[in-house]
Design brief:
There is one protein chain. The protein is α+β, with helices and mostly antiparallel strands. It is 32% helix and 27% strand. The chain starts with 6 loop residues before the first strand and ends in a 12-residue tail after the last strand. It holds the Pfam family Acetyltransf_1.
């Protein structure tokens, strides 16, 4: 059985224990990558807990957003969030798959589900920002039809900006690869 058939993606309350555990894993990885790259150290655990607690997760709740959780063989394994920036533009955020499950098709399924949620919220365009060191994410977005754009925000850690037209689903947005 192909590994991507073991994935399910469903909406999840942003304040659930499952969401908190996955966000802690997400923040640990992206924060550690940044600190190791720039300061040669891992993230201070107290700082990590402050970041998890400070996240503006309410923006990922209906009617202006949606948090999605991917489960692999029933176990929480990844997230993707979408929030409306304006009446026609959604922002993709918090895309994460546990390291041990990368390459099993979960990230593409999560992004595809987030695009569908954005369409349901009325978006015709979805955009995101990411960092240079998150090379896997940048490759995923390019493979799924996102195009690199000029900056659309001034986020401190943003180094690359992408966008995708959501007018109609494309073969790339439904890829499971």
């Amino acid at each position: 059985m192909p590994s991507h058939t073991l994935w399910t993606v469903t909406p999840e309350p942003y304040d659930s224990a499952v969401a908190a555990a996955l966000w802690r894993a997400y923040y640990t990885e992206v924060s550690d990558r940044w600190y190791l790259r720039h300061e040669g150290r891992s993230t201070d655990p107290e700082e990590l807990e402050r970041e998890v607690a400070a996240g503006a997760h309410e923006e990922l709740a209906p009617p202006r957003g949606q948090l999605l959780v991917g489960r692999y063989a029933g176990e929480p394994a990844g997230t993707a969030g979408v929030r409306m920036a304006d009446t026609a533009t959604a922002e993709l955020t918090r895309v994460f798959v546990r390291e041990d499950l990368r390459g099993t098709g979960g990230a593409a399924l999560l992004v595809s589900a987030a695009e569908a949620a954005a369409r349901d919220l009325g978006a015709t365009v979805i955009r995101l920002d990411t960092r240079s060191d998150l090379v896997e994410a940048r490759a995923l977005y390019a493979r799924l039809g996102y195009r690199e754009t000029a900056p659309h925000n001034d986020e401190m850690y943003a180094e690359h900006w992408f966008a995708k037209d959501l007018a109609a689903p494309t073969a790339a947005s439904t890829a499971t690869g």
